[in-house]
Amino acid sequence: MTVLEESRAVAGLLDKMNRVFLEDVSWETYQAILDEVEREGRRFRHTYDQGRLEIMTRSGEHEIPKELFGLLLFVLAEEMNRPLFVGGETTLRDKKIKRGIEPDQCYWIANEPRVRGKIRIDFRKEPPPDVFLEVEVSRTIINRLAVLAALRVPEVWRFDGKKVQVGVLQPEGQYQWGNHSPSFPGVAIGEIGRFLQKARNTDHTGILRELRRWVREQLPKAD
Fold first, then answer.
1. How many other C-beta atoms can be found within 10 angstroms of the C-beta atom of residue 135?
2. Which of 2, 27, 49, 83 could form a disulfide with 112 if both were Cys (CB 3.0 to 4.6 A apart)?
3. Which pLDDT tens digit goes with each residue over 119-128?
4. Same domain membership, residue 105 and residue 24
5. What is the pTM of this model?
6. Same domain, yes or no, for 161 and 191?
7. Which residues constitute the domain of residue 49?
């Protein structure tokens, strides 16, 4: 079977299944699968780790908090006057280490000047996003955090349906979890979880206004 045939076969499986997990997938086949899926105008949450590929469909349980999570970060950046380049669901991939991952949302903050104005980002030359948002409401087979660490993503903000934790990459290649972000010093990022919990039953613009008030209350304490 050719690479093109393999990629089309996988795309066909995604029409019937919520999750596809494959092993011994070459880098070329992985790239072809992404191209095939994008050609058809579909988006799936995927992780590639040295030949292992997991692709999952997106559900409302995942998408609603994902979108709101990104909006909350945007408000936080605006209130704290932090530069921001929105990467959205741009796939992070590195052929050299054979790893790739699609974020729920990603952002350049400290490194915003290095990617400003770029439509396509070459991760061989440009830094990874400063903050990677992860909504983990269903268990994955592949360890996404290990892939992110290998790609040297400095911060992961993770929402598990109840709470938000900030993982800061350590020199030994592991994430240390806590409540604070180097990108937004002085603000208890973990508190964002309580705003996300309201996503199903509260007007989302109201949630953003509430967060904005809360951030303004926090800022004097950060000085």
1. 26
2. 83
3. 888 888 899 9
4. no
5. 0.88
6. yes
7. 1-57
